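Exercise 3.2. Students should predict the tertiary structure of the chain below and write it as structure tokens, then compare their answer with the key that follows.

Predict this chain's 3D structure.
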Amino acid sequence: MQPVDPPALTISGSGWRESKWLAICELCLVGLIFVAARFHLIYFSKTPYLLIVAWVSLRLRNVRWREVGLSVHRNWPMTLALGIGLGFLTEAFQLLVTQPVLAAWIGKQPDLSVFNALKGNIPLMLLGIAFSWTLAAVGEELVFRGYLLNRVADLGGRTRWAWIASALVVTAVFGLSHSGQGSTGMIEEGIAGLWLTLIYFGMGRNLLVPIVAHGVQDTIDVVLIYFDKFPGM
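Answer key:
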């Protein structure tokens, strides 16, 4: 009797590109990048490294960024209007609800001392706005919502429960990735990450709307810090 090979662990279809082992290896690599960043072994920001992993993953699997949501939602005016409106709404909720409640509960504001140099400094403010739209808005949304959210869901076969579990896991990771802001900041950013995930789902898994919303929110933060009007700083 010939030995029977165990069934392949795959997402769908056949071949190594659809293998869940590939997804597991990718997520292990992502984990190593987070660990390296935690021990200050990564220069400046982990986002570009994570973005490289995401890009290579999509290329290997013949998946386009458009297929994970990088496309215009209906049309550009609608995309921009939704993104800007949701960005202002996100910022208002964070400043008026999330941050005060968390600060009162935990007993301290988010640690944003690293941004103190922005106060009254126009060149640094402009640089901060540039980073808000590149590393934060575009980079983090492509990595967390476009890549990780979809890749973790792949492990569960993209069922309803797989998407829910992925949303919770990626939201937690997003919050933990802001550990430099202290416990208040991590929880606050986790809530913001969950909101951006809901926007992604609500827009039919569209990435451009949360990208714009994320950029608008962070831009407002930078401007408030520049004028020394950000709460708790």
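Discussion points: Residues 1-14 have pLDDT under 50 and may be disordered. Residues 68-226 form one domain.
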